[in-house]
Design goal:
Length: 231
């Protein structure tokens, strides 16, 4: 398993990132896309779970993404003994605090608290900075205290102060399009974990509204029939 430190020391984002004023990109995630969610889960386990756990998510819950327990055990179960266990972090929080000044946060609800657009932009805007301890910085969150966990996939980028934009230094194992897709899947998974019942809740809500609409029509017809002779 390839585990790289992924310390999301992040702040809420709106249309513009609060810290750096960097415009956020729209996250193209879709929690209904099971293939994307499975890919995002794989990326999370291989690149994020070394530091970031999900205390409100159990490996068993990944069966809702179309994965069998055998597939989970073989490909995703690295930091727990049983499928019923929570997705535990491999890093000791105390060690994380020593290394980074703060314990790596749990990612169970990070997408709900920070926003999908923020995460999608943040994970795509790291650049090399020799002035920082880790050698990395971020356009969305200047002076972030974490390294670029996915740099081998994206490659190394630099920052042009004059043009206020990112520039390519070295290529990664993925093209720009492929890397964007990887981040989309990861964000998609984080959004799903934040509220696994979101899709079913929306479906139930639509049905309820439809039923209420029919009930309203019958109630209105009944009222009209009842009051038609009242003057």
């Amino acid at each position: 398993m390839k585990t790289i430190l992924l310390l999301l020391l992040i702040v809420p984002g709106t249309v513009l990132a609060a810290s750096g004023g960097y415009r956020l990109d729209r996250s193209p995630h879709d929690p209904r896309d099971l293939v994307s969610l499975q890919s995002g889960a794989r990326t999370y386990v291989n690149y994020c779970l070394g530091c970031h756990g999900m205390q409100f998510m159990r490996y068993k819950g990944l069966t809702e993404l179309g994965l069998s327990e055998a597939q989970i055990k073989e490909h995703l179960l690295f930091t727990a003994d049983k499928v019923g266990d929570a997705m535990k972090v491999a890093l000791d929080p105390k060690e994380g605090k020593v290394w980074f000044g703060v314990a790596p946060p749990d990612l169970s609800v990070v997408a709900r608290s920070r926003g999908a657009d923020w995460l999608y932009t943040y994970l795509r805007t790291f650049y090399r900075d020799p002035k920082t301890v880790t050698g990395w910085n971020n356009a969305v969150y200047p002076n972030v205290a974490m390294p670029h966990a996915l740099w081998s996939l994206q490659g190394e980028r630099g920052w042009d102060d004059k043009e206020h934009k990112l520039t390519e230094l070295t290529k990664g194992s993925q093209s720009a399009t492929q890397y964007d897709a990887t981040v989309r899947d990861l964000v998609n998974f984080l959004v799903y974990v934040g509220e696994p019942a979101a899709n079913s809740r929306r479906s139930i809500g639509i049905v309820v509204l439809f039923v209420l609409g029919i009930v309203f029509i019958f109630a209105w017809l009944l009222k009209r029939e009842y009051w038609k002779d009242v003057k």
